[in-house]
Design goal:
About 65% of the residues lie in helices and about 10% in strands. It is built from six helices and two strands; from the N terminus they run ααααααββ. It has a two-stranded antiparallel sheet with strand order 1-2. A hairpin with a 4-residue loop joins strand 1 and strand 2. Helix 1 runs antiparallel to helix 3 and helix 1 packs across helix 5. The radius of gyration is 22 Å and the shape is elongated.
Length: about 160
């Protein structure tokens, strides 16, 4: 194999690792993006479903398969246990905390979805502020300018 081909394969391996990290960041924080852009919730739900499948079933992630293929082409050994086992567990958190980290990720995802749902309800006008909540009663959004995203806020009941 020529030096240029070997270098190209190494670049592709690095790009695959970078995309894999981006996917993990999206898994963790994508639900919060849906607070601003509601359509993001659809790919985020699909991503969370895929992540749950990978964690609970013996399924290989296509990005891990791609990295292993590229590593084989470069004469390197495949990842042992997968991407998370190689690059995340033991690096970003201790190995003994895998179950805790999975639950914390699930909690963050659920919180982001609840927040997205609440924002969607507010935007659709389905939610009424309770009168017993002083700040909700005294501070009301009067107008939303869709062009700038700004709000005009007024006081009073």
């Amino acid at each position: 194999m020529s030096g240029e081909v070997a270098m190209a394969i190494q670049v592709l391996i690095g790009a695959t690792v970078l995309v894999h990290f981006a996917v993990l960041v999206f898994l963790l924080l994508g639900g919060f993006l849906a607070w601003r852009w509601g359509w993001v919730i659809i790919p985020h739900v699909l991503m969370a479903g895929w992540a749950a499948l990978i964690v609970t079933a013996p399924v290989t992630c296509p990005l891990t398969a791609l990295e292993n293929f590229l590593r084989a082409r470069a004469g390197e050994s495949p990842l042992e246990g997968g991407f998370i086992d190689t690059y995340v567990t033991g690096v970003l958190y201790p190995t003994q905390d895998v179950a805790l980290v999975r639950w914390l990720v699930a909690l963050v995802v659920i919180i982001s979805w609840v927040g997205a749902f609440v924002r969607w309800l507010h935007a659709s006008g389905e939610v009424r502020h309770p009168r017993w909540l002083p700040c909700a009663y005294s501070l009301k959004v009067r107008h939303h300018d869709r062009g700038t995203g700004s709000h005009r806020v007024g006081f009073g009941g």
